[in-house]
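User: My collaborator sent over this chain with a note saying "see what the structure looks like." That's all I know about it. Can you take a look?
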Amino acid sequence: MRQSIKTILLLALISYNTVLQAQDDLLGLLGEDKPKKEYIKAAFKSSRVINAHSMEFINPGTMDFRILHRFGNIDQGLKNFFGLDQASMRMGFDFGLRPNLMAGIGRSTFKKEVDAFIKYAPLRQSKGPGSFPVTVAFVGAVTVDGLPWADPTRQNYFTSRMAYYFSAIIGRKFNDAFTLQVTPTVVHKNLVQLQTDPNDVIGIGVGGRLKLNKRMAFTWDYTHVLDGLPTGYYNPLSVGLDIETGGHVFQLHVSNATGMNERAFITETTGQWGKGEIRMGFNLSRMFQLKKKKA
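Assistant: Without extra context I'll predict from the sequence alone. Here is the result:
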C-alpha cells in the first residue's frame, strides 16, 4: 500500500513538471511581449504646413513632387477676375533619405528663384520606452535670385543673388485631431535693397492642423517678424484646407504672401489681410516610390 502511494506521488510530480515544461515551450514560441518605442506619424499630411516646413518627414526612398500655386490679389475685383488672371508658382522635388532626414530643391516664378534645403530631426516625438514628448527638427536652406541685375553696368557678384534661412521646428501631435508647432527662423540676405535695410530678419512662426474628418483637415501658419522687417512689408498668414485623395494631398488656401519659400514669404510679403490684399491658391503633393521597401 505504501509503495503504491509513493508510485502515485512520483507520477503526479512527473506530470506536473511535464505541464510546466510545455507551458514554457509555448511561451518561448510566442515570444516575450515587450513594449517597443514607437515614433509618432501623420502629425501633418505633408512635409509643409502651407508655406512653412512642418515637423513631418516623408518616408525614405520616396520623392514628393510638389506644385505650389498662388493667384493674384482678390481685392483687384473683376478687372483681374479676383486675382485668377495672375499666377505665381513653385515646383519642387523633395526626397526622403532617412526617417528623420530629407532634402529638396525647387524653383519659383517669384523672382525666378531657385532654393534648396535639408531638414533633420535629432529628436522625434514617440511613445513607449525612452519616449520623447515633442519633435525637434532643423532646416537649413539656400536661395538664389534669378532676376536680371538691376544695374548691369556696375560690377555684380553671384553671391549677391544668394540668401539663406535657418529654422528650428518644435512640434507635438497632441492627439489624432490636433497638431501644433513653433518655428523660430532667421533669414540672411547677402544683398539688401536699401543701405538702411538689415541683412538679417528674425521671425517666429506658429503652425497647426485640426483634423475635420478622415480625409480633410484645417491648417494654418503664421510668422511674426521680431526684428529686421523693412517698411512696406507685413507678417505672412495663410489658412488652408487639406484634402487627402489617396495618392496625393490637395490643399486649398488663402494667403497674403506671394513667395513660397521662407526667404520670400517672411521678408517680402506686401499684402495686408485687413485691406483684402490676399490671394487664393492651392498646393498639390504627389508621392513616388523610388526605392522598394524592405520586406
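A starting point for your reply to your collaborator: The chain has two domains: 1-33, 40-289.
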